[in-house]
What we know:
It comes from Candidatus Thiodiazotropha endoloripes. This is Fatty acid hydroxylase. One of its GO terms (molecular function) is iron ion binding. InterPro entries: Fatty_acid_hydroxylase (IPR006694), Sterol_Desaturase_Related (IPR050307). The chain is mainly α. The protein has one domain (2-28, 41-265). Helices cover 62% and strands 0% of the residues. It has 16 helices and no strands. It is globular, with a radius of gyration of 19 Å. The chain starts with a helix and ends in an 11-residue tail after the last helix.
Amino acid sequence: MTDIILDYELTIRLIAFFSIFAVMAGWEAVQPCRQQRFTRSQRWFANLGITLLNTLLLRLLFPTAAVGFAAFAEAKGWGLLNEIQLPFWLSVIIAVTLMDMVIYLQHVMVHAVPALWRLHRVHHADPDYDLTTGARFHPIEILLSMLIKIATIAALGPPVIAVLIFEVILNGMAMFNHGNVSLPKPLDRLMRWLVVTPDMHRVHHSVIPGETNSNFGFNLSIWDRLMGTYRAAPKLGHIGMQIGVNSLQDPQLTTKLNGLLKIPFLKNTQGGDDYNVQDRTWPGQGDNL
């Protein structure tokens, strides 16, 4: 089965990506949550351009990506799940869940460490919020993320199918919870007990520090609740809240591909000094839904 997964991994991921992208783009066009400050043509060239650049870079430096490394680790017997005997289905569930926890912890780390925040600001500096925001990351952060993912696979020893499932879910949920859409409130309230919804994650993209440093999850919402980083809603509401980074408001930086690549290296007067260096505000504990 491993050989089949490796042969069709890229095809499966591409089909999933374009299918979810089409659904979310259509949903945003028909029923947007917020009025956008910029048109799609103004932002999407940069957002999709950096996504394509990152994809090519990863395939060049890591030809087999995470799924291929999982097959290598399985063949070598590396990792906890290769050392203990569990039912296959249980190993898959444990692996997907723990990898999601690592993504949550990694996300907290890139907010807490100033040098990493400089990279991560590329994601947060998007002046609008839609499905393309979910894939807008600086190439250096993408490479660091892949190294963390490989280290996690080596330590955990997940089944190959679990890594493929996780990668598909992660990419799909990133587009879903960054969507410029809203679910009916009763459905949103129910769903966010399990997964991160667009209204839940949108809070994380607020310019207000205590809101930016909340709701770090991409898939499972349990980590924010357990770690005390959950915030139910933005103070100004989803329509009134401001998206982005206070110190990065120049459209030449935030909506242009060359600008996105420059952001981590800007001097303080150009946006290098912002709340995460000056203000360590983290969410309060009384915001539960």
